[in-house]
Amino acid sequence: MDVHAKLRNLRMAPRKVRLIVDLIRGKAVGPILTQLSFLRRDAALPVLKLVKSAMANAEHNFKIDPSTLWVKTIVADGGATLKRSRPRAHGSAAPILKRTTHITLVLSNDPMPQPVKRASTRPTKKRTAAKKTHSESATTEAPVSAPAST
To answer: Is the CB of residue 103 less than 8 Å from the CB of residue 75?
Structure first.
């Protein structure tokens, strides 16, 4: 069963929140709580609160044991942008974009899928003949004879 939780209009740029979100995607909830509590990023606290909220939803609403939960999906999307301006030289103004973030979290108590090891799909490197350098090409050509002096 999936448990959903959303955090909307977080006054932080999505780019900064995605750094934290990418760390916890696909992991069990227990290690996530420890990891987020020790991270030294401002975005870690709202994400930690969101994970705890989703765990409480699972326990209270669906009677699911929180220790069996893992992060199925978590997405940090851009929200509304607050537009401000900053005075610049010669009476002009420069825009300031204060970005917000919407975070959507889905926890699941289904068994975690095991990662599948795939065979490498990279093509093998072809070896090419080495190119001649300027000094090598000068030695392979026939020497030019000097004009005869009389």
So the answer is: yes
Residue 142 tokens, joined: 């026939």
CA 122 to chain centre: 23
- For domain 2-86+93-108, the question of CATH label 3.40.50.720 is answered with no
pLDDT, tens digit, for every residue of 29-73?
999 999 999 999 999 999 999 999 999 999 999 999 999 999 999
- Give the CA angle between residues 42, 46, 48 to the nearest 5°: 105
Structure tokens at 94: 């420069």
The model's pTM: 0.74
**What's the CA gap between 58 and 107, in Å, rounded?**
8
